[in-house]
Structure formats: C-alpha cells, structure tokens
Amino acid sequence: MNALRQLRGRRAAVVLAAAAIVAVPTVALAGDSHPDKTQAAKQAIKGGKARNVILLIGDGMGDSEITIARNYQVGAAGRLAMDTLPLTGAYTTYAVQKASPNLPEYVTDSAASGSGWATGHKTYNGAISVTPDEKPKPTILELAKAAGFRTGDVTTAELQDATPAVLGSHVISRDCKGPDAMATCAVNDKVNGGAGSIAEQLVQTRPDVLLGGGKQYFDQTVKAGKYKGLTVAQQAQVNGFQIVTDAAGLAAAKPNQPILGAFAKNNMDLEWTGPTPTRTGTAPSTCAINAARTATQPHLVDMASKAIDVLDKQTKNSRKGFFLQIEGASIDKQDHAANPCGQIGETVGFDTAIKKVLQYQKSHPDTLVVVTADHGHTSQIVETATLGYTATLTTHDGANMTISYATSEITGSQQHTGTEVRIAAGGPQAANVLGVTNQTDLFFTMKRALGVN
User: Fold this and answer.
1) Catalytic residues
2) Residue pLDDT, tens place only, 396-415
3) Which of 168, 330, 348, 423 has the fewest CB atoms nearer than 10 Å to its CB?
C-alpha cells in the first residue's frame, strides 16, 4: 500500500511538473503528455481582417539555424518563443534570372526574397522591389500606409540593407544605399530624375517608425531636387522626423511624430562572441556576451517594444491599426562569417523580440503575427569535424554540439542555400501559411489580412 501511495505521489509530481513546464515555452518539454491538439488547431484558424500585422524576418534563419539556437539556449527538448506559434508551414524562396525571368534562380539573396514577400512579385538577386524589367512594384508597407494604417520598419542591420529596404524603396541594385553610392543605379539617381537612393526613398516613404543602423548613409548629402545640399537625415527632420541615435534618445522619443533611429554607422553590434571554427574543430566551449557592444545601442527587443508602443498609441483611437516589420538581420551575417556564437546570439535576440510581440498579440488577438526567414544558410549540426570548418559548443543540455561551415574558406563568405524555410503564424489569416507555399504568397496573406488593395 505504501509503495502504491509513493507511485501515485510520483505520478502527481510528474503531472504538476509537466504543467509548469508547458506554461513556459522556453523550458524543455520533458513532461509533455502528448495531448491531442486538434481542437487547439481549429481554434487557431481565423479568417476575417486583422487590425495589425507584425512580420518578423530572421535573415538566413533556416531550420538548421533555429535548431542550433534552440539546442544551445534551451536544449533539444526545449522550445523557443518562435516554436510556440500555432500554425506552421514552409515556403520556397527561389528568385528568377534577370535575363530569363521564366527560369528560376534556385538560391536567392535577401533582396530578391524580400522583394517577393514585400510586393508579391518574383525578381532577380539584388533587386529592391522592382521586377526583372526594373519596374517598381508597390510594397505591403506602401499599400498599408496609403490605406490609412500606421507603419514601421525595424532591423539590426543598416536600414538600407535588403530586408528593410524592400518595404520603402525601389532600386535596381541593393548596393545603392545612399546618395554617394548610386553608380550602379543611374536610372534611380536623383541627379537623373530618379527617386533617389534607398536612404532617400525610405525617408520619402515616411514610415512612422524607422529603427536600425546605417547612419553613414543618412549623413550623406542629397545631390539634386528640393532637398539638394541637405543630408538625408536633415531631409527627414524637415519632414517631421525625430532623429535619435542612441538608446536614451529612443526611450525619450515621442509617439506623436515619426521616428528615425540610426544607432550605428553600419550594422548594429553583435550580442554574443565565441570560438572561431577550424579545420580540425575546437575544444567544447560556451558563448559569451559581447563585451565590445556599446551600451548606447538598443537591443532588437528594445526597438521592437518601442515600435509596438508607438504604433499602438498612434492607432488607439483609429479604426485602422498598423503594419510592422522586425528583422533579426545578423543571423545571416554571422552565418556568412562562420561565427556560431554570433549567429546563435542574434537568433536568441530575435527570439526575445518574438516573445515581446506574442505578449502584445495575447492582449490584441486581432493582430496577425508571422515569423519566417528569407532564405536558408550554411551552418549544419554534424557528428564530428568535417571537410569544412567546425566548432563545438556545450549546450543547455550539457552536451556537445558540433557545428560545420563548409561552403567557403574561413576567410571568405559562407553561402546561402536554396532550401525551403519555416513560416509560422497566429491570428487572422494565419492558416494561409500552412502546407508548402511560396514567399510571394506571404504578400497576399498580409494584404488580405489588412484588407488593402
């Protein structure tokens, strides 16, 4: 009888522990009782319109990059915030060839893929919201703004980098970031009657919130037109933008006028540092907080929180809500650099921003939240050292995880891959991410959710 009581007590403890674990998504689900999720899935499928749409892009964040970050941060059986969205599918990311648009370019860059989900049109690598014939196409942010929604564009990269650029600019090459960098975009140059560089066009599109890096391009001088002789930042000020350059300025910025926050000359600083992979691997180690990161720079979660707060206040008494894009940009950049801790730290930072967004959605269920990537990348979890470059990290589980980068020499740039990537969502119209879709389908899902033409 005593043995039976002890067994029942242990079972009750396991049930209570499981309940506690399930309540916190970032803790391992060791006590999961494998419930039937049919009813929860049915409840997650909602049609109709969304008041708000928040799109979160993990640049280069394929399934491998997600798994690496999950294993390291919360363990193999744990769950990140991005893992808790109720509806998940996959989407294809291919671009098209500029000279032969009927032929696919199987491995996309961020510009072509971003242009796809921003405009609903396939295009060539390097294009920023123009089709292969170099014609501009309206973006989801531009359509939302024209329809009376408030808008925001947030990144840890330069604001002129591909993903933030595709929402508010149209140039034939992603390299045309500022007035001094227009050599490959003569047709877009203001001196030739064009709309200007990416920096100039972003300011002209006038989202309500623009937060990220790329200060050097906003500091360049406009060369033609009404604002000739002013810097792009001064042009923004003339048009009502608050200009902020550090975390304190961001915190103090008022919600009653547009905010342009440029917090670094180029990309924002990394969250974590760690070992450099070698041909023969590394001794098991852990990641460290980047001590060189300046405290004056806000983290992605700080920028996301401010953007949501500002846009929510701006739309409080309006019938229409907002569209907001938030990018974790340097997942990609550190995958290119074969920097496992840099890559993981940026993924964890991105996931922290996702958690903040999901907290907002919980009290605003009329918000469509989509989490996805623009393309896959190189890093792979492997058994032992490979023909490429490997590093071994000790994870949350206390186990060793070996990560391989094998598409370039360590001094070069690791390559994107042409794989499909995860897309997950919750809220009105989220069911449209189910199955295998195309990144251009995301544009129509968001457009339908907002009810814009």
Assistant:
1) 110
2) 999 999 999 999 999 999 99
3) 348
